[in-house]
Amino acid sequence: MAGYKLATYQSADGPRAGLVIDDKLFDAAKQTRQAAYVTVLAILEDWKNAQGVLKQVADGAAKVKGGKGGGQPLKGAKLLAPVRWPSAIYCAGANYADHAAEMNARHGKPPDPDPHTLGLESWHFIKASRSLANPGQTVKISDYSKQMDWEVELAAVIGRPARHVPLDKALSYVAGYTCANDLSARDRGRRPHISDTSPFKADWVAHKSFDGSCPLGPWIVPASDVKDPQKLALKLWVNDVLKQDSNTAKMIYTLAEQIAHLSSRLTLHPGDLILTGTPAGVGAGRGEYLKAGDVVKIWIEGIGEISNKMA
Fold first, then answer.
1. Among 50, 80, 110, residue at a domain's last position
2. Pairing with 95, which of 28, 62, 89, 191 sits 20 to 30 Å away (CA)?
3. In this structure, are residues 268 and 161 in contact, taking their beta carbons and an 8 Å threshold?
């Protein structure tokens, strides 16, 4: 059976949903003859039915050799952030023990105990959905932050409404996976002229939700093609220098735990993104930050890679 990846590409008529099969890009709505499948979000909202339809199309398209039904070469196509636009982007904070330790060390604090032992659940903040950046997009940072940091993360894409989901069923609500970079303006996270003891000191919007703060892509790999989301290597390079090199097995809270907890508080909707946390190796831990001209590349095993230039 042929595999496929779900993408959004820039067409002459604007952004459209596409199917990536081998080195070809097919228009999802045209290939499936489903007019509603013009956007990835529409496909995800019909994910229960769409999975079978897309698999059939992928099997058929893989057999086509050129001609009208042969799609267009993937090389040269402009891929956009695959989901336009999710209703929410939930980001797990401090979800790798080594990353939590390096951030504590930065502030002169000892490592925290495993939060499971304290009876704690996963912790998330939210990025604005329009903060997404496309693969290859230049992200302007020089006029915003002098301490811009990088964070490679596995992103899960929700495929059906999830509310009060039990742990053992949680992964069945995931449509697929993609790569995300949780760019963080470290020097904008704490409001100036406010006491350090004030509950209003933190500024999560400035810290995490600025324009372009969430590069995403290059596509969505169906969950059925990812054997175990907790066994994926992930890496990040700045100007071809390896900065982060880890595995999703090192998460403190698994994706299933995150979905179960989030869905106990609110309903997760098709297309919603869950960024599952970043491992050690961020710039803040070593006093290094991004500057104009830097190129950040992220890669996740079995998913793909994207790069973005800072300006």
1. 80
2. 191
3. yes
What CATH number is associated with residue 251? 3.90.850.10
Instruction: For residue range 93-123, list pLDDT tens digits in order.
Output: 999 988 888 888 888 888 889 999 999 999 9
In the chain, the amino acid numbered 263 is: S
CB atoms within 10 A of CB 157: 26
Q: Is the pLDDT of residue 215 over 70?
A: yes
Number of domains in the chain: 2
Are 28 and 118 in the same domain? no
Which residues, including other chains, have CB under 8 Å from residue 157's CB and lie 6 or more apart?
Answer: 44, 82, 83, 174, 175, 176, 177, 178, 220, 271, 272, 273
Regarding whether 67 and 133 lie in a shared domain, the answer is no
Three state DSSP letters for 179-240: EEECCEEHHHCECCCCCCCCCCCECHHHHHCCCCCEEEEEEEEEHHHCCCCCCCEEEEEECC
Which of 48, 63, 80 is the endpoint of a domain?
80
Q: What is the pTM of this model?
A: 0.95
- Residue numbers of the domain that contains 30: 5-80
3-state secondary structure at position 287: coil
301's tokens: 């095993």
| CA-derived radius of gyration, the chain | 20
Backbone angles phi, psi at 129, to 5 degrees: -65, -30
Q: How far apart are CA 7 and CA 79, in angstroms?
A: 7
